Amino acid sequence: MTSTEERPKIAILGGGIGGLAAAAFLRAKGFDSDVYEQATALTEVGAGLVVAPNAARLLRRLGVLDRFVKRAVQMEVGWEFRRWENGAVLSAENLQGECLRLYSEHTYAAHRADLLDALRSAVPEHSIHLGKRCGSVEFEGDQAVLRFEDGETVRPDILIGADGVHSRVRNAVIGPTRARESGICAFRALVPAEKAPDFARRRAQTLWIGPDRHLVHYPVSGEGYVNLVAFAPAGASSIESWTATAALEELLDEFAGWDQRLVELIRAAETPGRWALLDREPLDHWNRGNATLLGDAAHPMFPFFAQGAAQAIEDGAVLALCLAADPDDPIAALERYEGLRRPRTARLQEVSHGRSHINHLPDGPEQQARDLAYSQADPLRANGWIYEYDPEGAVS
Fold first, then answer.
1. In angstroms, rounded to a whole number, what is the distance separating the alpha carbons of residues 96 and 106?
2. Prediction pTM value
3. Any catalytic annotation for residue 225?
4. Angle, CA of 59, 275 and 187, to the nearest 5°
5. pLDDT of residue 235
6. What is the number of other CB atoms lying within 10 angstroms of the CB of residue 137?
7. Which of 9, 123, 249, 283 is 20 to 30 A away from residue 190, measured at CA?
């Protein structure tokens, strides 16, 4: 085993969930890394997310689960599908006992900021460099070179591109990639718990599905808010951004005629954010020279299986394990990491994409067949291939 002093110099571009997870797992294996984040403060927009057992296990392994659950909400009901016009429950899973029994962890819902805070607690402050806007990523042979707008140039032994859907590292590794418009627009909003109807405050991950649209809600932030994410046909003004906003009236218009309880929940929301879902095919490679990709930079996926954050965390765990197993040959370690992760994340990209069609069926025979299938399904077991995944088992 190489000594810590001889271990590679690792740069991580991006201080979101994936970048901090990678830094935390690398540190647990004895590697130092430098995280470069363009924002001047580590705040996470985007409101809520679901942390399924595959991600919760890894937070426990990092020693940060206890910190995370202080603000996260343990789900009691998962994948509760409801019909758009009257709220009839099509299916639901009981998470209280089964989730722990099957997968050794609970399922949680949380504000992204609380997950980010937990991951940051496992990364030394001196490793995080804020206000570092990357001007370019270039290659000199197999050597990735980062040039920042403040004039600093970094030539790491390993570069990890965790810089999101508009990744500069991805463009340098595989060339510019074109995204297709999916035709779907997402709205996100938070509803203060005291303004939310009783049904929305339950510890349940609820999905209302109907023609061309669906809406998801669950409590977050220590049950102080209800997170709301809605999907509807994209308008011409939609952009792919976490920071664009819409008027509440736009969101209400999209769900006019739906169950009145749901309309009341929307009406209580704060100003919604809005972004377009862009469609990207799975990449055929993630690596070039001493650089690799992670999280949304590698495998952006529709949020319909609630696995985007979890897959970024898994990436960080597997990457650290591969580097620890072969610290003297980082390029081989990066190749092994890609080989282990790319098939799994591509499968999740594909099933998440397929769910967008299924959830948005117009009323009719196909919708009735879907509803019947949902009523007979056991998603907690059917998704076992997602939730039982263990990076150490995969690497060994």
1. 8
2. 0.95
3. no
4. 80
5. 66
6. 21
7. 123
Q: What is the pLDDT of residue 4?
A: 47
Task: Identify which of 128, 119, 115, 133 has the alpha carbon closest to the alpha carbon of residue 49.
Answer: 115
- Position 3 scores a pLDDT of 44
What H or E segment, with its residue span, contains residue 183? strand 180-192
| Integer angstrom CA distances of residue 31 from 8, 12, 171, 331, 335 | 8, 12, 26, 16, 18
Structure confidence at residue 238 (pLDDT): 47
Rounded to whole angstroms, how far apart are CA atoms 149 and 368?
55
Please state the three-class secondary structure of 106-147 as a single string. CCEEEEHHHHHHHHHCCCCHHHEECCCCEEEEEEECCEEEEE
Closest by Cα among 280, 283, 282, 295 to 174: 283
What DSSP letter does each residue of 28-66 carry, written as one string? HTT--EEEE-SSSS----S-EEEE-HHHHHHHHHHT-HH
What per-residue string of b and e applies to 208-226 under the rule 16 or more CB within 10 Å gives b? bbbeebbbbbbbbbebebb
Q: Which residues of the chain have pLDDT under 50?
A: 1-4, 236, 238, 242
Structural contact between residues 1 and 328, judged by C-beta atoms closer than 8 angstroms: no
Residue 2 confidence (pLDDT): 43
263: number of Cβ within 10 Å: 14
Considering 36, 108, 218, 389, which one is annotated as catalytic? 218
Residue 252 and residue 254: Cα distance in Å, rounded? 5
355: three-class secondary structure by DSSP: helix
Task: Report the candidate in 217, 35, 253 with the shortest Cα–Cα distance to residue 126.
Answer: 35
Question: What span, in angstroms and rounded, lies between the C-alpha atoms of 240 and 267?
Answer: 24
Domain boundaries, the chain: 4-74+108-178+280-356
